[in-house]
Amino acid sequence: MPFLTFQINCPDAETADRIADELVARRLVAVATRHPPTQSTFRWKGRIRHADQYPLTLKTRQEHADLIEAEIRRMHPYEIPPITRVVTEASSEYLTWIREEASGGE
Question: What is the pTM of this model?
Answer without folding.
Answer: 0.92
